Amino acid sequence: MIRNSVFLLVLAFGVAAGCGPTAAPAPAKTAAGVCKHDVMDADCPFCHPELIEKLGFCKEHDVSEAECWICKPSMIAAYKAKGDWCGEHALPESKCKLCGK
To answer: Residue 65: how many CA atoms within 13 Å on its side-chain side?
Structure first.
């Protein structure tokens, strides 16, 4: 009983301090040429927003080509690193029309 109470207290304090499950994970060290979003820096539309206009629109998937996680599966890691991933529907939370957010 005491162990459970201590766990709940630690969990509550951690969540209140921003350390709980909703907090973004601390960025890990990246390999050479890899950005903080866990993709090649030169291909990251979050680090280089100019890529969105430069690469144009992905007509097949109704998003910008630079951000298309279907054509470029490496972008899934970038969305997850940003905390923008809907695991239930396997697409970016910011693009998820099924969750209604």
So the answer is: 10
Largest CA distance in the chain: 59
pLDDT, tens digit, for every residue of 30-79? 578 899 988 899 999 999 999 999 999 999 999 999 999 999 999 999 99
User: Bridge-partner residues for 64, per DSSP?
Assistant: 57
How distant is the alpha carbon of residue 57 from its chain centre? 21
DSSP string over 43-66: G-TTT-THHHHHH-EETTTTEEGG
pTM to 2 decimal places: 0.62
Distance CA 77, CA 69 (A): 9
Quick one: the chain helix, strand, coil %, rounded to 5?
A: 40, 10, 55
Mean pLDDT of 88-97: 92
Residue type, 17: A
CA–CA distance, 29 with 7 (Å, rounded to integer): 30
Give the closest residue to 37 by CA, choosing from 23, 47, 22, 49: 47
Residue 86 corresponds to which amino acid?
C
